[in-house]
Fold this sequence. Notes:
single chain; 325 residues; alpha/beta; Rossmann fold; eight-stranded mixed β-sheet; globular
Amino acid sequence: MAVSDQVPTQSGFRAKSTAEEVLADIDLAGKTAIVTGGYSGIGLEAVRALAAKGAAVVVPVRSPDKAEKSLARVDGDVTMAPMDLADLASVRRFARDISDSHTHLDLLINNAGIMACPEARVGPGWESQFGINHMGHFALTDVLMPLLQATEGARVVALSSSGHKITDILWDDIQFETHHYDKWRAYGQAKTANALFANGLSRRLKADGGLAFAVHPGGIFTPLQRHLPQEEMIALGWLAEDGGPSELAKQGFKTPEQGASTTVWAATAPALAGKPGVYCEDCDIAAPTDPESPMGRYFGVDPHAASDESAERLWALSERLLKAA
Length: 325
């Protein structure tokens, strides 16, 4: 796919449709789903919506006590298993256990992530946002690939963001080894990587009928902002001077229930059949970014995040990094 494939389907849903509304006519009985980060924010709401429609949902958890409290309020077939995206051994162990205990995996939703955090290293020294948001999920999908390929109509959803607009992959210094660390450029790179991952994965699932998509969930107040001081969120226009939501946030931000809607739409929508690797937002395929529009900083997908060439380059690089880890 390429940016020219980014043609909205006119899905009929709205920017603030909820996950429950999107799944109203969808039956997921007999389906198995994994949702990373599924016990907080929009991940929790995706789990809630999928389980309500009959899916058996597995949630990898880094903080068992927190997860147990959150998921206790979710009805349906929801189970937990330990996993930490920053720890490759735990990722591989979780994925192997799933592969050994399941005959099919219908939905893999790579939702977990961190944003604009202080500089840190994970794994063999990877910059943490790239390492957790991209490489952790890449490693997870790598082990689960045979199970996905064995499942008719499997779908993988990678959570990207309008943050991809900040930067392309920093090909000459992905790990910020020679350049000064910039938390927002690191986040932008990771979100571009998420979009390119879906692009590359879609080709690897094609022969077996699987699909992969990238999703921008929209602006939502969740624990994702935990590393941002209040004064920075005021400067960004997300909060008013009194610390409450700004007018921009009141008008444009979504609730977690609304923020999960594009995720579950990409995971289930019949309209996406035959449209591999596209980037979605507001419960539809996103249009290409309009560089002339003042809203171009918030909506649409930039060409660098919808490039087959870049997706293959990143895939090959990620395989090398994983092999060396």
